[in-house]
Write a structure and sequence with these properties.
The protein has 3 helices and 11 strands; from the N terminus they run E-E-H-E-E-E-H-E-E-E-H-E-E-E. With 169 residues, it is mainly β. The protein starts with a strand and ends in a 7-residue tail after the last strand.
């Protein structure tokens, strides 16, 4: 299934996790199921093709908005996959076992389980306007770190609602 996500890395009460700004997917059942789990999924028309060693990737959301929300770019693997060393930035980025989201001012925490990631370095080029259409703000500069992982199965636990009090914010 084709999917595209835009995320950031967070800590809540010293627990590291991922916060998704958005996730786009080509299959409506996946979108509906993930939305039930409180994740911000959107149905998108998506296309992937291999051209001269690069994977060309295109995604356009299928919802009506004032501006088109899309991504257009390409990537290729440029190193062999390897497990990130403990204490490195790559380890910090990959070894996350919670997803966080907010709903009505409260936090939703979803536990996840997976084997350790074994990423390869990747080269990436993209249309900056396209990427910015997916973000809540505007990206400045260029991407400096990119990874590629072939496949990794992930198990999700049921979402947990964490009531936020003013002092927790």
């Amino acid at each position: 299934m084709l999917e595209l996500n835009v995320r950031t890395y967070v800590k809540y009460k010293n627990i590291p996790g991922i916060y998704f700004f958005s996730l786009d997917a080509a299959k409506i059942l996946s979108v509906l199921g993930a939305r039930l789990g409180t994740l911000p999924y959107y149905k998108a028309k998506m296309k992937e093709s291999d051209i001269n060693g690069w994977t060309e990737y295109y995604s356009r959301r299928q919802i009506k908005t004032d501006e088109e929300t899309y991504f257009k770019g390409r990537y290729k693997q440029i190193s062999k996959p390897e497990f990130p060393a403990s204490g490195t930035l790559d380890y910090w980025l990959f070894e996350r076992y919670y997803l966080f989201n907010t709903v009505n001012g409260n936090i939703i925490r979803v536990g996840i389980h997976h084997l350790p990631w074994k990423p390869a370095k990747a080269a990436v080029t993209y249309e900056k306007d396209a990427l910015n259409s997916l973000l809540p703000g505007t990206l400045q500069g260029e991407t400096v770190k990119a990874h590629y992982v072939e496949v990794l199965d992930v198990i999700f636990w049921l979402p947990e609602l964490i009531k936020v009090h003013k002092k927790d914010s």
